[in-house]
Amino acid sequence: MPIHISDILSITFGEWGSPPVVNIEGRDKLIAIVKKARGAMSQRAFGKLLGVSATAVQLWERGDTVPDTENLAKIAARSGYTLEELLGFLEGKPLSDPSEINQILNKIKVMPLSQVAMIGRAVADRFSEVSESLGA
Q: Which of 5, 30, 43, 82 could pair covalently with 57 via S-S, beta carbons 3.0-4.6 A apart?
């Protein structure tokens, strides 16, 4: 029987999408990382951002289920880490502190839009000052 491209793609995507196996200690760490990535967002808003339901986020935060690798990658990125760093952390390896710029960016991702707007204005003002000082 011939193998179709769709069969290969579904196998590849199935492997990519499968949740990793996580021990109890790793699950507790994952719960903390998911909550950190969500920040002040509601579970519904965070789920919408990731393309999953609020129920899925709730199950992750209770430790009842584990996100698939695609969502783990998104959660890792929101937390300032790579997927590999996050998976290593869940396996017991130490997690380095995100760089200062990543810490700032992570804070921006979870702050209220009114504060993000203030930062945007400050950045625009800074660019304007630099542009004027360069005579542009």
A: 43
- d(CA 63, CA 39) in angstroms, rounded, equals 17
Phi, psi (degrees; rounded to nearest 5) at 75: -65, -45
Tokens representing 86 are: 């996050």
Task: Measure CA of the first residue to CA of the last residue in the chain; give whole Å.
Answer: 67
pTM of the predicted protein model: 0.59
Cα distances (Å, whole numbers) of residue 81 to 67, 72, 74, 76, 89: 16, 10, 10, 5, 10
Q: In whole angstroms, give the CA distance from residue 129 to residue 136.
A: 10
